[in-house]
Amino acid sequence: MAEKTSVRAVKGMNDVLPGEIARWHRLEALFRRSMALTGYREVRTPFVEHKPLFVRAIGEVTDVVEKEMYAFTRHHDELALRPEGTAGAVRAYVEHKVANAEPVSRWYYLGPMFRAERPQAGRYRQFWQYGAECFGDAGPGSDAEMIAELCAFLSAAGVTAPRVLLNSIGGPGTRVAYTEAVRAYLEPKKAQLSEDSQKRLEKNALRILDSKAPEDHAALEGAPTLESVLDEADKDHFKNLLGHLDALGVTYEVDPKLVRGLDYYTRTLFEIKGAKEKLGAGDTLIGGGRYDGMVEQLGGASVPAIGFAGGLERLLIATDDGEKKPVVSVFLAPMGSPATTYALVLARELRAHGVTCDVDTRGANLKSMLRRATSLEAPYGILVGDAEIAAGVVEVKDLNARTQEKIARSEVVRVLADRLAKGTP
Ligand code: HAM
To answer: Whose CA is nearest to atom 21 of ligand 1?
Structure first.
C-alpha cells in the first residue's frame, strides 16, 4: 500500500486563509491610498532576477546575500528569488531609461520577498513588503516628506506611537572611511568580540555596530562616531532633514549606531519601530534610506534615490484588534426547493443593488443554516419558506440584535440596501 505522506507548506512560508484576508486588503488599500496621495505609482517587477544584481546592489558581505538568498541555476543563468524590492526597481529604472523621460520618478510596490532567515514571530522566509522608491531628488525635503507620510500611514493603519530612528551614514566615500576607522579601532580588541563579529571585522566592520551581542557593545565603547567622519555637505543634509521633520511635527530619535543591514545606503538612514509588546525584538516595521550611488553603479546616470520598505505581516500583527469583519451582509436561508429558487432570485436582486449575500443552497435544516449565518458574521438573515412565498413576505432577522420582522418581498431589497448603506442595523 502506498505510504500516506502529509503535505505541508515550506517552513517560514505561510498561507493567508480567507478568514484573514479582509485585514490584508484593508492595509493594502490604505497603503495604496497613502502612495497615491503623494504621487507614487505602482511598479511590478519580476520575483526572479539575475543573482549578480542582488550581489552588486545589496553588497557581497551582507547577511541577505551571504546567507539568505534563494539562488539557483536554470538554463545556465544564475538566478535568485528577490530578497527585497530596491535592486529590481533600480534595474527596471535603468533598463527602461526612465531618467531620460522624467526628472523625478516615484514608484511603489507591494508583493512577496524571499529570505532564508530563521523563522520567528514577524520574521518569515516568504514575507510581503510594501515599499517605495523615489528617484531623482537629492534634497533632504524628500527624505522628510517620506518619513512624515509614513508616520501618517502607520497611524491610519492603527499603530500607536511609532518610533522614528534616524542616522546619517554620509556619502559613499564616508561609508568606506568609517568602516575602516571602526575596523582599526576594533582590531586590537578582536578577541573580545562575538564570534560573528570577529568574522565581520575584516569583511564588513560596520555591521558590528548593529550587533545585538553585549560583548560587541562593550568593545565598541569609545569607538569613533559616524558624526566625526561626516563632511559638511552630509551634515548640512542631515540638519535640514531634522529641520523639515520638526516643522512637520514628526518626533524622532537620532541613533548614531543605526547602520542598517544593506550596503547600498548613503546619507539618510531610518527605521520606524512599533508594537514592541506584540513583536518583541522584531519590531522594525519599516526600514529605509538614501542610496544616491546605486543607479549609476548599476549602469544608469548619476541619479540620487531614497526609499523604504515595511513587512506587511509585521504591520498586521501590530494592528490586530481582534475584530472580525462580516463575509456577507445578508444570509438567505430557504426552507425547501421552491424557497431555494425564490431565494436565488432575491439574492440576484440584492447583489444588483450592491448588497453582498450568500444563499444556503445545501437543503439543510434551519438550525444549521443559522449556524452558518453566524460564522459568516452576517448582520442580516432572510428566512423564507412556502408560507412566506404565499404571503408575499420574507422574515428578516437582525442577527446582532436578535430581532425578527416581516418585510414585503416587494420592499425588502430597498429596505436592506438602505439600512446597510446607512450602516444602521
Ligand atoms: P529591510 O530592512 O531589509 O530593507 O526590510 C524592510 C522591512 O521588511 C523590515 O523592516 C521588516 O519590516 C520587513 N522584513 C524584512 N525581512 C523580513 C522577514 N524575513 N520577515 C518579515 N518581514 C521582514 C529593505 O528591504 C530595503 N529594500 C528597504 C529600502 C527600500 N531601502 C531603500 N529602499
So the answer is: 123
Distance 315 CA to ligand 1 centre (A): 12
pLDDT of residue 2: 56
Report which protein residue has its CA nearest ligand 1's atom 16. 123
**Does any ligand 1 atom lie closer than 6 A to the CB of residue 84?**
yes
Q: Decide if pLDDT at 3 tops 80.
A: no
Nearest-atom number in ligand 1 for the CA of 87 is: 27
Q: DSSP readout, 244-286? A: HHHHTT---EE-TT---S-TT-EEEEEEEE--HHHHTT--EEE
Residues 76 and 30 in one domain: yes
Nearest atom in ligand 1 to the alpha carbon of residue 86 is 27
From the CB of 131, is ligand 1 less than 6 Å away? yes
Classify 419 as helix, strand or coil: helix
Q: Which atom of ligand 1 is found nearest the CA of 125?
A: 19
Residue nearest ligand 1's atom 11 by CA: 311
pLDDT above 60 for 425: no
Q: What is the CATH number of the domain that holds 399?
A: 3.40.50.800
- Statement to judge: residues 144 and 267 lie in one domain: yes
State whether residue 225 is helix, strand or coil. coil
Give pLDDT tens digits for 363-420.
999 999 999 999 999 999 999 999 999 999 999 999 999 999 999 999 999 999 999 9
Quote the ligand 1 centre to 372 CA distance (angstroms): 40
CA of 425 to the centre of ligand 1 (A): 42
Contact (CB, 8 A) for 317 and 275: yes
Domain that holds residue 294: 18-170+230-318
Please check whether residue 101 is in contact with residue 95, taking contact to mean a CB–CB distance below 8 angstroms: no
Mean per-residue pLDDT, 242-266: 94
Q: Is ligand 1 within 6 A of the CB of residue 136?
A: no
Instruction: Report how far Cα 379 is from the mean position of its chain's Cα atoms.
Output: 31
What Rg do the C-alpha atoms of the chain give, in angstroms? Answer: 28
Q: Is 85 in the pocket of ligand 1 (CB under 6 A)?
A: yes
Q: Report residue 345's pLDDT band, with 50, 70 and 90 as the boundaries.
A: very high
| pLDDT band, very low/low/confident/very high, at 226 (cuts 50, 70, 90) | confident
